[in-house]
Amino acid sequence: MRYHQAVHDVPLLMEGCDSVEQGDDLNVRDLLPDELVRSSLKLPDLPEREVVKHFVNLSQMNFGVDNGLYPLGSCTMKYNPKVCDEIVWWETVAGLHPLQDTGTTQGALALMHGLEQMLCEIGGVDAVTLQPAAGAHGEYTGMHIVRAHHESTGEDRNEVILPDTAHGTNPASAAMVGYDVLDLPSKDGCVDVEALKATISDDTAAFMLTNPNTLGLFEKDVTEIARIVHESGALLYYDGANLNAIMGKTSPGAMDFDIVHFNPHKTFATPHGGGGPGAGPVGVKAFLEEYLPVPRIVKKDGVYRLDHDRPKSIGKVRAFYGNFGVLVRAYAYILMLGGDGLERASEGAVLNSNYLKEKLKGIFDMPYGDLRKHEFVLSGKPLRQKGLRTTDFAKRLLDYGFHAPTIYFPLIVDEALMIEPTETETKDTLDAFVEACRMIMAEDPEILKGAPYNTARRRIDEAKAARDMILSWNAYEKKMADGAGSR
Amino acid sequence: MERSKCSAQMIAELGIDSIDSLFEDIPQEIRIPGLKLPAGMSELELIREMERVLSVNQPASRWLSFLGAGVYHHFIPAAVKTAISRSEFITSYTPYQSEISQGMLQAQFEYQSFMVELTGVDYMNCSVYDASTAIGEAVLMGHRIVGGKKFLMSRSVSPERKEVARLYARGADIEIVEVAYAPETGQVDLSDLESKMSNDVIGFYFETPNFLGPLETGWKGIRDVLGEKMMVVGVNPLALALVKPPGEMGADIVVGDAQVFGVPMSYGGPSIGIFGCKSNHVRKMPGRLIGMTEDAEGKRSFCMTLQTREQHIRRSKATSNICTNEALLAVAVAAHLAVLGRAGLRRTALKNLENMRSLSKRIDAIDGFDAPVFDAPHFNEFAVRSSIPAESIRKNLLDKRIHGGVSLDRWFPELKNCALYATTEMHSQTDHDRLLAALEGVR
To answer: Residue A326: its chain B contacts at CB < 8 A?
Structure first.
């Protein structure tokens, strides 16, 4: 075992800091009415040196793609070129205010307009909005477009259908736009076309699908699915989380999807930042363009401007124009790779995934078809015989310096391990991962039950967190004052 | 091992002829002949191209700017960039494996702690996208708690945010009903609020400072009128360094934008939405929550908690669809507040307040100008009325390389010839002098 994470005892910034009464040091009372003046504020007053030490030491107790393999299925944890991160700190990016006169932001608008066109080509769609702030937010935007479309034709359709392998955000997004959600059970890991026919009706507003799906299988009946959906008068929605598997080979548009969201932070070089920020541009076929959020970026006589006058638009999903900083990274990444480079990226992702799958399928069960795209799902069922669960295996992987795969998703696979190696890992890394898996399976089950050992913390008690509900330093102090937390 | 050799070996081990056979499950009729995009470029070529495209921008930060309206130009200490440039933070994801993600988890817990202290609520999530979507989420959360069909919203809320809230409301078939502001003070018009109350009202959203600049002083009256209904308050968290927090004034939900703490303006995004609430509502909250706990050896540890509210567990019954949030920016916020410290934060806020006072007085002294338009306490932003259209002043200032205030009459026809000016700690006396000279010149 070569890995050992740093272990620091880093006190909380608030720790030991007193609640200070104010009103004395600053002449706030001359400037604000008494009833508005704050009476106390508890924040630390640390030297900068201590603050930097604090965050650097914390960072050492955090694992990212730059530390090692992070095969978190569906999340596409690939290495991103550093130059893309550098550019967003340029003043010509970071220093722009969204309400500047557009005469002074022509570069930003040109970039966004250019990115929209690139995404149209990659997605096979006719128009793109960059406004949504994340993938789920893109889904949410897409579902509003679905609703606007059906309302404009006077149709009352209140259901959205999605496969039982769908990402959790899909049903949540559809529900937030007021739709009833119908889960469609899969057949052999793919959409059950007969079941779809039986389920779809005049009430169906849309069918949401990601292709390749979350098992990494390409939905080969997608053309038939599109026909069924469109004949029923519903729209077909593409969850772009897995677009990184097919760039240049096919596109959502070629598969006849009507609405697509992109995940620039997965597909095009924005590191995930511990959970965000991301972005969630949405592309549509021409007949839906009028519903896209305002403002639209338009170019006339070589000049870009923001057009707010779109009477059929759904409105706005976020203030201003989107997560510009993330979009700049995506633009830079696409330019750097070019059309061929993007296709090579997809090929690399699929090759790595299939290679790793071949090596691992002897160790775990692998339900459903063999040829996978960018990710694959194994079942940790063999662990059960040893009295173990997938989570024990996942925790033990951390000791070997690998982040764990996504576990217990998709729900149709028992003890699921969802693995996405991405195109940026070498064969050596994949081989080392396979070797670690093999070694772990040969270990005494008790070792796995106690894992991890080499991380900043040993197995963490999540149930206690939910019981104690200490979600801030103030809550902790209150709890201590009221008597100790539960054990 | 070389990359090409690597692939060749894997292809050989898979027993296939080429990578193409890994794509044979994609039917021919939906294949595309590659991507019609330009050829790739080297890092150096990329930098040159990006410079070419972006150099035509004239950033507000470089010229003199009085733009605000939800996004503000503040000083960001270098140490903030140091903290959030750590590769281990940047390249990690949602801390599903808590044992190996303690750094991010603790930093997010610290963000939650700072925000709880500043706003005075019991619980804070570790971010939503921005203030506008936070309001949308608050409308939906209020609906989950009290039911109802109408959500009241002050007219003095940012038009951008109002539009987003309206969309979120529409998804749940909730109607947004506007409540007037008092024309003299720009604050909530209590009698109008009272007249719009009914059984099917979910709650009321207002901001302090509001979009037009005034801070709200009529808290008690609003709380009384609302009774059991949701009081949702939007804040500029920097103002809270000096101003009494909404948690102490009876707010049920507090939202806002923490972009003011260490996050560049970046043309409006990414920014970071604040979302917090009182303790009795925590299980109805959207977004991720980080809790304190222990590991197997009894060491203090952090992990995500109450995940059964979230989409990856609860699917269509989740409190929100949010997954990706603004985690890295939460680290920036925590680092920013820590670097400034209590004293530094209060000094910064005071500088904003003083600048507002002094600039508004000086503009008011110019013939043909009236500032602030509203008779109320303000923080760092205020409305200015002029004898000529605000839009012509804005254009005139632009010629002098000054980004003047945002014209208000396009959203508020009743505020003819009015513009919204923001001034922060970034402005020196000389900067104000320059604006005043320019305004003298255009009247």
So the answer is: 269-270
**B134 and B296 in contact (C-beta within 8 Å)?**
no
Token readout for B129 is: 């996208």
Neighbours of A228 (CB within 10 A): 18
**One domain, residues B68 and B96:** no
Per-residue burial over A103-119, b = 16 or more CB atoms within 10 Å of its CB, e = otherwise: ebbbbbbbbbbebbebb
Whether B210 and B320 share a structural domain? yes
Which among B93, B163, B268 is the nearest to A274, CB-wise?
B93
Which residues does chain A have within 8 Å of residue B347's beta carbon, measured at their own beta carbons? 26
A193 shares contact with chain B (CB less than 8 Å): no
* DSSP per-residue letters across A48-83: HHHHHHHHHHHHHT---TTTS---BTTT------HH
A120/chain B closest Cα distance in angstroms: 10
**Per the CB < 8 Å rule, is A181 touching B325?**
no
Domain boundary among B335, B357, B383: B335
Domain count along chain B: 2
* Rounded Cα distance, A118 and A334, in Å: 8
Does the CB of A30 have a partner CB in chain B at under 8 Å?
no
Distance CA B364, CA B361 (A): 5
Give the closest-approach CA distance of B91 to chain A in angstroms: 5
Searching chain A, which residue's CA lies closest to the CA of residue B62?
A: A95
Which one-letter amino acid corresponds to residue A201? S
Tell me the shortest Cα–Cα distance from B311 to chain A, in angstroms. 5
The pLDDT of residue A1 is above 70 = no
Class of domain A83-337: alpha beta
Cross-chain CB nearest to A274 (options B37, B328, B335): B328
Q: In chain B, what residues touch A255 (CB-CB under 8 Å)?
A: 30
Averages of pLDDT over runs of 10 residues in chain B (443 residues) are: 81 95 96 97 98 97 96 98 97 97 98 98 97 98 96 97 97 96 98 98 98 97 97 98 96 98 98 96 95 98 93 90 95 98 95 98 97 98 97 96 96 97 98 97 81
pLDDT tens-digit series, residues A439-468: 999 999 999 999 999 999 999 999 999 999
The Cα–Cα gap between B402 and B417 comes to 18
Q: What percent of chain A has pLDDT over 70?
A: 97
Q: Which three-class secondary structure state does DSSP give residue A239?
A: strand
Question: What is the rounded CA–CA span in Å between residue B233 and residue B255?
Answer: 6
User: Cβ of A106 and B39 within 8 Å?
Assistant: no
* ipTM score: 0.97
Quick check: B32 and A169 CB within 8 A? no
Same domain, B110 and B259: yes
Which of B9, B19, B50, B219 should one mutate to test binding to chain A, selecting the residue with the greatest count of A CBs within 10 A? B50
Q: Give the CATH number, domain containing residue B204.
A: 3.40.640.10
Q: Angle at CA B100, nearest 5°, toward A134 and A355?
A: 75
Is A398 an 8 Å CB contact of chain B? Answer: yes
Rounded to the nearest angstrom, the minimum Cα separation between B438 and chain A is 18
Range of the domain at B93: 78-335
The SS3 of residue A436 is: helix
E strand or H helix that includes residue A223: helix A222-231
- Cα–Cα distance for residue pair A327/A138, rounded to 1 Å: 14
Q: Do B93 and A133 touch (CB under 8 A)?
A: no
